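Interim report to the steering committee. The following record documents the input for Monofunctional biosynthetic peptidoglycan transglycosylase (787 residues).
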Amino acid sequence: MPISQTLARLAGACILAAALIAGLLFPLAGGFGYISNRAADAVDNVSAEVLEGTVPAVSTMVDATGAPIAWLYDQRRFQVPSDKISNNMKLAQVSIEDRRFLQHHGVDWQGTFRAFLRNTSSGEVQQGGSTIDQQYVKNFQLLVVAKTDAERRAAIETTPARKLREIRLALTLDKQLTKDEILTRYLNLVYFGNGAYGVQDAAQTYFGVDAKDLTVPQAAMLAGIVQSSSHFNPYSRPQEVLARRNTVLDTMIQNIPGRAEEFRAAKATPLGVVPEPKGLSNGCIAADDRGYFCDYAMQYLEDAGISKDQLDKGGYLIRTTLDPAVQNSMKTAIDAMTNPSLADIAEVSSIIAPGQDSHNVLAMVSSRTYGLDANIHQTVQPQPFSMVGDGAGSIFKIFTTAAAMEKGLGINAKLDVPSFYAAKGMGSSGTPGCPAMTYCVKNAGNYRSPMSVTEALAQSPNTAFVKLIQAVGVTPTVDMAIRLGLRSYTKAGTSGHGNTSMADMFKQQNLGSFTLGPVAVNPLELSNVAATLASGGKWCPPSPIKQVLDRNGKPVSLTQQACEQVIDPGLAHTLANALGQDAVGGTAAGSARAAGWNVPVASKTGTTETNRSSAFLGFTDSLAGAAYIYGDSPTPDQICSFPLRNCGSGNLFGGNEPARSWFMGIKPVLGNFPPTSLPPLDDKYVRGSNNSQIPDVMGMTQAEATSALVGAGFQVSAVTQPGSAAKGTVQGTTPNGSAIPGSVITLYLSDGTERQIPQAGTPQLPNLPGIPIPRLPPIPIPIPLPR
């Protein structure tokens, strides 16, 4: 370069340097005063953030034992205090970046002007001049403050305004913090490449050690990477990184002569990095079978007031309710029943701890592997906590029964169980031979009649419960289902027809099919129905969160729904006892025996008419939940059992794989909880309320019996059948014992033909010749199935 040009550049550099000082010291003077004012404005906007020093950090989600489930982050950074950072790392970073760190007050004026003059005279950036304080400010604005690409470019732009802003903040920082605090912040902030932010994650990523255990050569390598983390990658440019590390060691030899021999020896060692970076995977995708639970916990926290962005940056400790013993046991049981490789069938289950103050989710599993590879049938769809499948079938008879008990029916009441029943005004089944606006239903097998409510719940005849919902009403039954836990049914659009909710669809059309559970259900909510009954009728939202702590270890307040007493405790306890017969001699007894089940349990099975989905609901004092199998495809087919598979004519029932899964999953962990027993009975709900008692009308004439029943608040119908009593004499009624106040009581009158008289309360029901017995109709209104 000609000497004249060099002199001119140097002269210009001097003028600029003088202007820089003037701009810094006299902010109102001239053009640089304007620049300084802009810098001051910028300082005002970000200085509080920089001085506070809060940086994005990893949030950790753990199970009930403290074992990690997932890590959530925007920048993979684990902040550590000064005493958790190796002195070797501190010495190496200061040696290569800012050897006068302990002498200056935030800005090394000597180095700044030397670099300024050299870079200006050469026409390019050949030398830095920033202190660790200044680099901290620049990196903080780049990695924390900047939210857009434009802001990130501005954070590193080579302009006087940015430099002035950086200098001002560095000077302020040095006044308010100690040197050790500044260095610790810097090492916790900067990017070391391969997704590692901060020295702790860098130490783990490259060497599999904590920051406090970094050796001299390890620390020197990390200190060297900071200059250009994209360039100095030990996996793609190992020789360049080795040379850079040795450069750092050379500076340490020069700056710390007392340890020169140690540093020279370190230069002869290999890099020693692990074969591949050890960075932790981000989010629920790495949570394996806990992925569904992790997703639910994330959704729950967002509803509770902590957004995903906050979780990704906040450094929270999220203590969940997931019990690994229950989770592992349920996952093993589910996989044994429902092969994860099945393309079109899935089984899901959630287990909840009943309680008066909370319903903690202990396990949430699916037969489907949580993942992104659809070719091997993985999914990340929220199967366990969204509306899926064709329905839980006869489990919905619980809601009809509970609504009837609330209206006065006792569990000892005898219910009529015809082989076929046509419910007028309860929707149209479209079945041949079934009148318009009539819902026709038959039983899947042969049942004696009448049955007590307890017997009917265990044996599950369809006709008895369709008759019962006609007496109770569809609206009270649907409302009972919602109160006990099926809260999604109130959401607009769940019916699949415009904005109409599932609940409103059944109510508006008075669909008696609701008692047979023929529509999609949220499996987690179904599990929570069990928890509500096990909690004496106390509903609480199914919670996956025990506690959230911020990065300073302080509890974070969450906005959560309050628990509600939705039915009388006596009703819940008595219904639980009635459901206690299902595993003893009912539809789930076979699976209970196969699993070696030998303790009291309340349960109910359910299957849809087309065998495209089935479920089992069960609960003890300590554990409640449901197992649900359904066709997991846009066009689900009928399902066959043992092994589960799609088939032309299904035979899947809730008492098969769903019940077996539940019993097999819960039995191994029963010993972790208090002994099991059924709750005490409440006589009010055993015999029914006073106004539900049916007068004894045996032996009366039709007129006398009718008068007595009407006087007690009931309606009356009559059927004549063979009998030896005088013609027209009452020889039986259904129901008997108790009934819903205002419901219809059927009188069975003798025709006096000298035939055997049925025992009181167990009349011979009339045959219905000439009426075709159709299959149970399909769902009146199809519901689109979400994936």
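Residues 20-49 form one domain. The committee is asked to note this result when reviewing the revised timeline.
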